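@channel sequence for tomorrow's demo:
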Amino acid sequence: MLEAGFWGLVGGLALVLGAVAGVVRDVPTRVIGAVMAFGAGVLISALAFELTAEAFDASGGREVVLGLLGGALTFYLGDRWLDSRGGVDRKRSGGQQAGSAAQGLVLGALLDGIPESVAIGVSLVDGGTVGVAIVAAVFLSNVPEGMSAATGLVKAGRSKRWVIGLWATVAVISGLASLVGYAVLGDASASVVAVIQAFAAGAILTMLADTMMPEAFEDRGRSVGLFTTLGFVLAFLLSQA
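structure tokens (generated this afternoon):
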């Protein structure tokens, strides 16, 4: 169980690393866009091969469909609710967060990070050892997430200490979410684990389409497709190792 918490924390700490890079140096938006696109490709591959495919093999199509749709709908509704409370544009690098409520920004960061942490915990339940591709995908995608959001938050007037503190808090909660996910599902049936895997995949995929990929395209333009494919290829090779 502690192993699940550790790996969830590792994935969350990538947000802190990205945030530090974003507040210490003025990272060009084109670089942020490229790294974010790469991270999105990594996550998409991990969702397909490490979560959805394994869930399908374990239980069949019905559980996978229910899980994917449930995760997508849950994230969508939660995201809309948080947008109305100041969480909109929370990952943007241009300072669009100016005037946003701190509560909405914090809750939005948690909404984005928790499904990834649960996915790490579930990978331990499913295979007994942590899914290397899942951890790598979460880590590689969280770095640009933290970088973009931190850059935008500083431009919007938030202090560097507040920004780093935000992502440090999210990292700790990510570790706890992974630990709780493993503890709750440790004795669950294969069908239940498959639904949770698909649920996490649906939530993460919706997050990618709603926040990361639009920001990456705005910052980088048409070359986003190339960087996304490179990330996808790397994660695919990791999943086959």
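heads up for whoever presents: The first helix runs from residue 2 to 24.
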